[in-house]
Design brief:
Length: 148
């Protein structure tokens, strides 16, 4: 079993934008994220801890300007926190082990997939291509990206 955790080395390796998003609960500009239009098969992991968060098979185009997913690969790897900031009532999504700010979850996703839209900042993610998942230690999640 892999242990995922936040480390000072991982934090110091972040770009300014990645740090702002993950450590200061910032938000990247809509339409600017590296993974917004990514259609490759693979898994998205926390850029800080490496914990698996979302699979490409659960990614969809929501039109919101950020990568959107219907569900996390494992609910234990994300935590949802009430966020009443900026005059809005919404639910913040953070990684469980790295405590990185990821984005927010909304109840306006595809009803056929459970109705949730995880609106996630690309700056909080690292993409592992399907062909590299075993090498990088994510073999147990390969079956979640096969159905694209």
């Amino acid at each position: 079993m892999t242990t995922y955790k936040k480390s000072t080395d991982a934090i110091s390796a972040l770009t300014q934008e990645q740090y702002h998003v993950t450590q200061e609960s910032g938000t990247e500009r809509p339409g600017s994220g590296e993974y917004l239009n990514n259609t490759s098969r693979g898994i998205y992991v926390d850029i800080v801890s490496g914990e698996p968060l979302f699979a490409s098979s659960d990614k969809y185009e929501s039109g919101c300007g950020w990568p959107s997913f219907t569900k996390p690969v494992e609910s234990k790897n994300v935590k949802e926190i009430n966020d009443n900031g900026h005059g809005m009532i919404r639910t913040e999504v953070r990684s469980s082990h790295g405590d990185s700010h990821l984005g927010h979850v909304f109840n306006d996703g595809p009803t056929s997939e459970g109705g949730l839209r995880y609106c996630i900042n690309s700056a909080s993610l690292r993409f592992i291509h399907r062909d590299d998942m075993v090498t990088h230690g994510y073999a147990e999640y390969v079956n979640q990206v096969e159905n694209i």
